Amino acid sequence: MSHNESLYAVDVADLTVAYRDKPVLWDIDMQVPTGVLMAIIGPNGAGKTTLIKSILGLIKPAAGQVLIFGRPYDQQRHEVGYVPQRGSVDWDFPTSVLDVVMMGRYGALGWIRRPGSKERQKALEALNKVGMADFAGRQISQLSGGQQQRVFLARALVQEASVYFMDEPFQGVDAKTERAIIVILQELRSSGKTVVVVHHDLQTIPEYFDWVTLLNVRRIASGPVAEVFTEDNLRSAYGGLVAFKSQAGTVNSNNMK
User: Fold this and answer.
1) What pLDDT is stored for residue 20 in this prediction?
2) Which residue positions in the chain have pLDDT lower than 50?
3) Contact at 8 Å (CB) between 243 and 253?
4) Distance CA 34, CA 38 (A)
5) How far apart are CA 240 and CA 159, in angstroms?
6) What sign does the CA torsion over 141, 154, 77, 86 have?
7) What are the pLDDT digits (tens) for 145-192?
């Protein structure tokens, strides 16, 4: 599907989310252009996962609006793929790797139609892309953490979405898997897709991403990495100095989390 290039892939305006009257996100504005690979970063408790879940309608905000290509999310579900945190999934559920990936086609099929040979082929192609084709018949409970993450990525790929949201996709994976995942995400961006990733490793931001949003309940900054991934913005987001060498110079701290 082609989109009006003047529209943002994701447009968040005045978004506020509160738990028991305590703000978790406060008055967030965030515009994500089409065709970028964006990281959302911030300290623990900053509201990163809450932001993604609010965009996806999984959490009801107290105020604000979210648009996907200029329309409410409910009208654009077919445009959106989602990879949740691996820890939020029941991996003991008795199902195979192939079945998990084919679940990604339900949005296109509807719940009445059963997946057929076309869906099976798409699922196998996605598993091959993430290096998991040999595990198609394996029970998901038998996989390592990195393998599980690859399967979830394959499930998102078969959705053939325009915008992908991924919550900590590199958490608990080895270096080889992380490299394989980032290559796929960069390929998605190169094909015109928009990818939004909750991320925690500040050192890889300049290498992996071209856009970044710094969050700590409020939005600190959002935009191209070269412009907003600065020492001052990192200090504002993390409440102190951050231990790594940024584009702005060397910053030292014990407060990376």
Assistant:
1) 83
2) 1, 109, 111, 245-257
3) yes
4) 11
5) 40
6) positive
7) 888 889 999 999 998 899 999 999 998 888 888 999 999 999 999 999
The contacts of residue 162 (CB under 8 Å, 6+ apart) are 1, 3, 9, 34, 69, 79, 80, 193, 194
Q: What token pair was written down for 239?
A: 């409440």
CA distance linking residue 48 with residue 58, whole number of Å: 14
Q: What b/e readout covers 39-56, taking b as 16+ CB neighbours within 10 angstroms?
A: bbbbbeebbbbbbbbbbb
Q: Any idea which residue has 């968040």 for tokens?
A: 12
Sheet of 80-83: strand order equals 80-83, 163-167, 194-198, 37-41, 211-216, 218-224
Residue 47 has which token pair?
A: 């509201």
The tokens for 240 are 């102190």
- Only one residue has tokens 């604000």, namely 64
Q: Alpha carbon of 207 to those of 38, 39, 106, 169: distances in Å?
A: 12, 11, 34, 16
Tracing tokens 């991320």 back to the chain, one arrives at 199
Total-model pTM: 0.87
